[in-house]
């Protein structure tokens, strides 16, 4: 039982880190896109 709970914890930690990495990359892409738009829409401001 103890081994199973520790294994579950490891899997959960891996999943959490993977999801965090995924969302981090997603936000970075969105941020780059926003910066790109802002750079090209600056003259209109």
What would your notes on this structure say?
Helices cover 89% and strands 0% of the residues. It is mainly alpha-helical. The chain has one domain. The longest helix has 40 residues, at 2-41. The chain crosses the membrane at residues 6-27.
Could you give the topology of this structure?
Layout: H1 2-41
Q: What descriptive keywords fit this protein?
A:
transmembrane helix; 45 residues; transmembrane; rod-shaped; 1 helix; membrane; mainly alpha
Short structural summary:
The protein is mainly α.
Counting copies of identical and different chains, the oligomeric state is: single chain
Could you tell me how far the N terminus lies from the C terminus, measured between alpha carbons in angstroms? 63 Å
| Helical residue percent band | over 70%
What's the order of the H and E elements?
H
Report the β-strand fraction as a percent range.
under 5%
Taking pLDDT < 50 over at least 5 consecutive residues as the criterion, the unreliable ranges are none
**What's the total helix number?**
1
Radius of gyration: 19 Å
The main pleated sheet reads as: none
* Shape, per Cα inertia axes: rod-shaped
SSE-based structural type? mainly alpha
The total number of structural domains is: 1
The averaged pLDDT comes out at 87
- The total of beta strands comes to 0
